[in-house]
Amino acid sequence: MKDVVVIKCGGSTIAELSDEFFKSVVAMQKNGKHPIVVHGGGPAINHLLQKLDIKSEFVDGLRKTTEDVLDTAEMVLCGKVNKQVVTSLHQAGGQAVGLSGCDGSLLEVKPVNEGMLGYVGEPTKVNTSLLTSLMELKMIPVIAPIGMNEEGTHYNVNADSAAAAIAKELGAEQLVFVTDVDGILKDGKCLEQVTADEIESYIKDGTIYGGMLPKVRAALSTLTGNIQSVMIMNGKSTNVGEDGSVQGTTIIKSKMKLFVS
Ligand SMILES: Nc1ncnc2c1ncn2[C@@H]1O[C@H](COP(=O)(O)OP(=O)(O)O)[C@@H](O)[C@H]1O
Ligand SMILES: CC(=O)N[C@@H](CCC(=O)OP(=O)(O)O)C(=O)O
Question: What phi, psi does 181 have (nearest 5°)?
Fold first, then answer.
């Protein structure tokens, strides 16, 4: 679908997103784009797990998910965070509909590595017709990253990979990761542009780790179709330039070679 913009709001920054941020998503729609919000909620899940005294750990940015962790993640993502985002868009003057990947078989998934990670899923199929119908009704879909396999088993999906799968399947024009850092940082500085090869070397040398890993992997997985670049930016409004341009890191497949005759 033309003019689709997938915006992934990280759990690291959701609580700090300003009214202006949500107004800009609504304005985007009024200007003819079709925004879709996919949200995370890692810190909120951590908080409830701690309260319930349930242990969890991360492997390469993915949360090992037992049945208890899955129940908790689903309660937080679908019950709390999803409705907070829907409410914020409503207050910003938009019409938003909250869904999880289980609704309308939106996100079909398979386990990533059941032995090591438990109920962690990766998307295999996206029901784009549901999203297209909502967007035609001028609704902004707000998606919580819980998916389901064909048998109806629920899985915890990293929100970055959910956003990438949705953007790819819809042939989105743009994919933006909104997070709690200005972009990909190296030696304390935000990189303006990085290629797939540079990302591989930054993963190897430890520059990119933890929660940034699923983000860059998801970004790279989308750079095959319509999407020419993926942006990682800070949820705080301070990184909008004076001319209104958005600052952050742009991920591209490779740099164009310049031939000089
Ligand atoms: N090279 C890097 N540049 C910036 N952040 C990085 C880098 N490597 C790892 N990170 C970590 O990734 C985090 C963002 O991922 P995450 O906490 O999962 O956020 P979100 O909830 O927005 O998905 C940053 O806060 C930082 O701790
Ligand atoms: C499998 C896996 O890691 N799922 C994530 C889902 C939420 C998420 O991705 O939230 P962020 O965007 O805040 O990282 C988790 O349980 O934390």
Answer: -130, 165
How many distinct structural domains can be found in the chain? 1
Of the candidates 34, 217, 59, 254, the residue with the CA atom closest to the CA atom of residue 131: 34
From the CB of 42, is ligand 1 less than 6 Å away?
yes
Q: Express each pLDDT in 92-148 by its tens digit.
A: 999 999 999 999 999 999 999 999 999 999 999 999 999 999 999 999 999 999 999
Range of the domain at 205: 4-252
* Dihedral angle computed from the Cα positions of residues 230, 231, 235 and 241, in that order, rounded to the nearest 10 degrees: -150
167 lies in some domain: yes
Could you give the CA distance from residue 29 to residue 46 in angstroms, rounded to a whole number?
33
- Residue 245 has phi, psi (to 5 degrees) of -70, 145
Cα 159 to ligand 1 centre (Å): 13
Tell whether 36 is covered by a domain.
yes
Annotated catalytic residues are 8, 11, 42, 160, 215
Residue 63 lies in a domain: yes
Whole-model pTM: value is: 0.95
What residue owns the CA closest to ligand 2's atom 10? Answer: 40
Cβ(102) – ligand 1 distance below 6 Å:
no
71 lines ligand 1 (CB under 6 A): no
Tokens at 198, concatenated: 């540079």
Q: What is the CATH number of the domain that holds 64?
A: 3.40.1160.10
Q: For 148-189, what is each residue's pLDDT tens digit? A: 999 999 999 999 999 999 999 999 999 999 999 999 999 999
258: in domain? no
φ, ψ for residue 126, nearest 5 deg: -120, 130
